[in-house]
Amino acid sequence: MADDLLLNIKGLVIEATAYPPGEPPKDITLVHGVDLALKRGKVLGLIGESGAGKSTIGLSAMSYGRGGVRLAAGSIMLNGREIRTAAPTDLRHLRGREVTYVSQSAAASFNPAKRLMEQVIETSIGHGLMTKAEAEARAVTLFRKLGLPNPETIGSRYPHQVSGGQLQRVMTAMALCPKPDLVIFDEPTTALDVTTQIDVLAAIKEAIRDTQVAALYITHDLAVVAQVSDEIMVLRQGRMVELGTTDQIINAPREDYTKALVAVRSIEHEEKPEAPAVLSIQNVTARYRGTNFDVLKNITLDLPAGQTLAVVGESGSGKSTLARAITGLLPPRSGRISFAGRTLSNETKARSMDDLREIQMIYQMADTAMNPRQTVGDIIGRPLELYFGLKGAEKQRRVQELLDQIEMGAGFARRYPAELSGGQKQRVCIARALAAKPKLIICDEVTSALDPLVADGILKLLLNLQAESQVAYLFITHDLATVRAISDKIAVMYKGAVVRYGQKSDVLAPPFDDYTDLLLSSVPEMRLGWLEEVISTRKMASAGN
Amino acid sequence: MHPIVKLLVQRIALGLLLLLAVSAVIFLGVEALPGDTAQAILGQSATPQALENLRAQLGLSDPPLTRYFNWLGGILTGDLGKALTNGADIAASIKPRLANTLFLAGCAAVIAVPLAILLGLVAARYAGKWPDKVISGITLSTISLPEFVVGYIVMYIFGVKMGWFSPTAMTFPGMSFWDRLHAVALPVIVLVLVVLAHMMRMTRAAILNVMQSAYIETAELKGVTPMNIIWKHALPNAIAPVVAVVMLNLAYLVVGVVVVEVVFSYNALGQYLVDHVTKRDLPVVQAVGLIFAGVYILLNMLADVIGIIANPRLRHPK
């Protein structure tokens, strides 16, 4: 029956105005005629890579276009009313009352100057749904249901006083407080550590079930959406690829694109045998200036030449700090770092040009790691000039070789970073690192900001380059699937210390220590019922809560 | 100790230190001028002997450091010395004029600050639309006109044509509060027009800056009305920059209004200072200079203190 349909979107077209550099503005279409129907109390997962239009479609259920996005054509029926063309006042009455929103970054979505409780109950009071006392009582009930510590008092805290995982739960409570018909979850766990994600995910799932609210669950992670939704819609470049029950999409995808999403991380990487180390870290301890605790505690690791050592851990475990210690940006208080048979000076400034050249870095945010006013050719050419004194035609030729190595064509040398996709930007950063002919590249979360399929391509490229040039990688990541795909050795870090270290096959084989067990079991698996299974069998709660 | 108390104590200590440094600069600056007070009193044709005698009498033959500390000690005990030109006690002359200055500045501030912030909020709410353009246009044109032009226009319209207020702002001791208010009405109008634009623009810019934040979108998606978004969600996060500019303007109202004082023949500190600068009455210049510096430092310190207190991260540490 049509009465059952809470949300019914038909032929939705969404447009925006793009401002390409150096060209006149032009209109682009983000969503090309998507249909979507959601019954009361059901959860529909919207999945796709960045640019698929999933958030844009999600927000259209509130008749909201982010940043100048226009809901250009089609029909959006909510509770039997057309809302695409509704007046601003009508939209205000519907937003926060019938539909609410949970964003990816709760940390940015809370007003830093207001206490949490005031923000959580704002809609319930503002729309005249409840008295202050009723709203506060409901908020406390929701805090408790979502597993927040001290549900009675947490509302009197300010956003900066609670952790990221907790804020995400508070935001869920804020969305559920006015008893909406529909909640839009926009990547609510993507910014969290894997061990925190699982708890938040379980809390959200339970809250959805208990309050019988309908939800649009937007994510790029198929394994996550499989845990919470009844149906899944796969989107690509603003068009629907496939719609089906969760079971069907996961176990019997029809479209090739869906199959690729399900099968992502297809890389099989045989670990290489033990070999002499190119980088040897011995008993390194470090702390930041002006603090009185060690962020790195007695770290000892070896990385053989031409191999990959993956350093895994949650945020705050000290993985990136380890990279800073190796590069000399954070000189260790004690311990020794030897590289290619020589001992490295603690400080970057004291190192020789060759020491600097032979250790290169690739960062998570390729965007901010490149000068936006330099062309790709300039960016890659710079280390060639600096380390090898190459100029003119010779430099051009070498830039060309490097572009070929990262599987990008000749035309890219003249482009600016803004004209590249996320994956292409990261490839340029890889080429820049390779240009120095390094023996070691430190890769700091290089695939974390990328879509799964793009990340897969980057990992394959890195493995190929390693086979060609025998460069070693110190691969910092929080993502265990990536670790499996690329590493020869693994070090698991927890609170500044290495808790498990060895060949990949040893580290990933039981018996596990509690933390490694938690980490491994927290990685979402693409099967129904995984979430419940893990929650019921876990030995240790995650640290990020 | 609560970290915020520590910060505040540090900030206030810094302000006092700054004031001390400024007093030294003022003293040195006057010291570095060619000639000295004795020369100024006796003129170019004074005999060396007469100069010597006067210097001894005024304590000018002591070493500079001794004189500096004598001067500083005097200030701390409320003794600003005597004016050279008429021998009057400086503190006694300053007192009523300072009161007049503060009265005028206070009246202007009470109107201008809330009005500027309100206009800034409205301009931000309708950014790019006609209310924004009208507000920006009017305030920018009043700040672009020199104060004396605005002064004479206001005087002509309200003083001469309409006859609502006296064209000159004469005050005398014993005047009632309401009479006094009536007397300063015209200069207050001029000052309000002069300081409005700066504070309004800053409020508008600070609000619009905050309006880019994700939590403003959250509020929008919660169905909060636009004016409530600005008032409840944007303004609390825009306080620090707004207060900083408000304080700069308040300082200007105290120390920078000599032109307006002259236009309306208002007997306040600015005129007093300018009179004595022309007469090379250095003790008066030093004393008034120090008061002006003190006002600047005090108000800026206050801005910092409010900025610190308004920051929830400092007020409620983890």
UniProtKB/TrEMBL annotation, chain A:
It is a peripheral membrane protein. It is found in: Cell inner membrane. Gene3D superfamilies: P-loop containing nucleotide triphosphate hydrolases. CDD domains: ABC_NikE_OppD_transporters. GO terms for molecular function: ATP binding. PANTHER family: TRANSPORT ATP-BINDING PROTEIN. This is ABC transporter ATP-binding protein.
From TrEMBL, chain B:
The keyword Protein transport does not apply. Its main location: membrane. It comes from Pseudogemmobacter lacusdianii. Residues 98-303 form the ABC transmembrane type-1 domain. It is found in: Cell membrane. The chain crosses the membrane at residues 12-30, 102-122, 134-160, 180-199, 238-264, 284-310. Belongs to the binding-protein-dependent transport system permease family. It is a multi-pass membrane protein. This is ABC transporter permease. It holds the Pfam family BPD_transp_1_N. Keywords: Cell membrane, Membrane, Transmembrane, Transmembrane helix, Transport.
